[in-house]
Specification:
506 residues; 40% helix; Serine Threonine Protein Phosphatase 5, Tetratricopeptide repeat
Length: 506
């Protein structure tokens, strides 16, 4: 029986943190796992379930700059960092300025927090995966139950590694042979395993994507249909559609999308996915609760919410997208999903300013539909592509506004542009913009990160409602070393076995 203490083991930031199998927060109400012997942590079915919930909590509650409760990586941080790396949400305070202005370095807290928290989560995933066979052998779990847990962990492992790949590695659409990130497939739950963990190299982007799909193919087979608060079969399929879009595997995107047509649908009201409960559009979200959320310094409602309604208003909708000619003035998403005061316009996708229980939407069926639209357009199936993008767009427009047609959009290039723009509108304030910039810049569709409204310069709602000049800055060409984040300096310095290479330019 092995008992370990996090004070007695060297914790490389590459994800060797032994913060455990379970957690003491109010979601799971368990003793921290670093105080529980390995065998005991999985000695009953109830403890196994708690260990699995602890993995979700490590994703939702996270770790930032030496402390928990800032929503790294998936409680809120993936949304906030993904938006701040793009141009459609606007930084109004110092809180996200390093990310927004591309001022990060190998010691910056925001990008380091994503790396550290994600690898800590991944170690918990792998601890559970390695413990499941023993729980079955001991009669603690039925094989069918263990299979579902394994599917959940494989889904979360793929989701987390993909998040790392889009922030810390060049896109697959440019060069699958570029350096990737360490893909962790075994647990570090004993000091003797630290050297083996340190020896895991970055591999290539292509190798990482191959492993993503290997994990997700198995997850799809093992997971049942379910609700959005836990990994489920639909979530594994939807994530595969996203990953194959990044790989430009257009036929593969359509194959995955077709599997979901019978079980999901775009909601008639664009607000429905954000107003509690489940809907045909919600595939998978990380759940926050009153007792466990990213708190006022991280929660989506706090960071993005209109100060007039109780939010902190650190991030607004950018006037650049608000005034864009492709966002129709009569689009209901401009009213039902936004709020304004004299200083600007804010998203109202997240409204619980008091208890901060808004879920973080990770996968929605609307994304799968637009993935399929893009794949069809790339394959020359323009009418099918336009029908799909219309299914998302038209529900937000009055009947007096005509639907798109392939001819009206000017053929393939125009159809693709319409799809890219629709993604910007539909997923505004959901953190998806960076993912699209990353893959489209790698494919040569974009030249890099577009100009953003200058930080803390949008001081009046007139910037949205008039033709007042918007000053811009922070455009980032694709060939800049800043296009991808640096590997944390401490990750490299504390790896005594086989330090991984830093991204060029840092």
């Amino acid at each position: 029986m092995t008992k370990f203490s996090i004070n007695n083991i060297k914790l490389a930031l590459a994800g060797l943190a032994l913060v455990g199998v379970t957690s003491s927060c109010e979601v799971t109400e368990l003793t921290p796992a670093n105080l529980i012997p390995d065998a005991e942590a999985f000695a009953t079915a109830e403890r196994v379930e708690s260990a699995v919930l602890g993995v979700y909590e490590s994703a939702q509650r996270g770790f930032y700059n030496g402390a928990a409760d800032r929503g790294y990586p998936f409680g809120a941080a993936n949304v906030e960092q993904g938006d701040m790396r793009g141009e459609d949400m606007y930084n109004d305070q110092a809180f996200y300025e390093i990310t927004y202005t591309n001022a990060y370095n190998p010691q910056s807290a925001n990008n380091n927090g994503m790396w550290i928290a994600t690898y800590r989560m991944l170690n918990r995933v792998n601890i559970v995966l390695e413990a499941l066979p023993g729980a079955v052998e001991a009669g603690v779990l039925e094989q069918a139950d263990a299979d579902v847990y394994r599917g959940e962990m494989l889904f979360l492992r793929a989701l987390a590694h993909h998040e790392l790949l889009i922030h810390f590695a060049r896109p697959y659409s440019d060069d699958p042979d570029a350096p990737g990130v360490p893909y962790r497939t075994f647990a570090i739950n004993d000091v003797s395993k630290v050297p083996a963990g340190e020896a895991v190299g970055r591999g290539t982007v292509g190798e990482g994507y191959t492993q993503l799909l290997t994990d997700l193919d198995e997850a799809e087979l093992k997971l049942p249909a379910g609700t959005p608060d836990r990994a489920n079969k639909g979530a594994a399929i939807a994530l595969k559609s996203r990953i194959k879009l990044h790989m430009q595997d257009w036929a593969g995107v359509l194959t995955e999308a077709a599997k979901l047509e019978a079980g999901y649908d775009v909601t008639a009201n664009p607000s429905t996915p954000f107003r509690g409960g489940t809907s045909t559009d919600n595939i998978f979200s990380f759940i926050n609760s009153e007792g466990s959320n990213p708190n006022t310094n991280g929660a989506l409602a706090a960071m993005y919410g209109n100060p007039a309604d109780g939010g902190r208003g650190l991030v607004k909708i950018s006037p650049l997208i608000w005034r864009a000619d492709f966002w129709h003035a009569e689009d209901t998403r401009r009213t039902t999903l936004t709020a304004r005061n004299g200083a600007g316009i804010y998203t109202s996708k997240y409204l619980d300013y008091v208890t901060r229980t808004d879920p973080n939407p990770i996968l929605r069926y609307s994304e799968v539909v637009l993935n399929a639209a893009e794949a069809n357009a790339q394959l020359g199936n323009l009418d099918a592509a336009v029908a799909l993008v219309n299914s998302v767009r038209d529900r937000a427009l009055p009947d007096t506004v005509p639907s798109f047609t392939a001819a009206g959009l000017g053929g393939q290039a125009g159809v693709l542009t319409a799809i890219y723009n629709e993604r910007r509108i539909e997923f505004l304030a959901e953190g998806r913009r960076w993912s699209d910039i990353h893959r489209l810049a790698g494919a040569g569709v974009m030249v890099g990160t577009p100009p953003k409204a200058t930080s803390r310069s949008i001081t009046n709602v007139d910037f949205y409602t008039t033709n007042r000049t918007i000053t811009t800055d922070y455009a980032l060409p694709y060939d800049s070393h800043l296009f991808i984040w640096p590997i944390p300096l401490e990750e490299i310095q504390t790896n005594a076995t086989a330090p991984i290479a830093q991204n060029p330019g840092y």
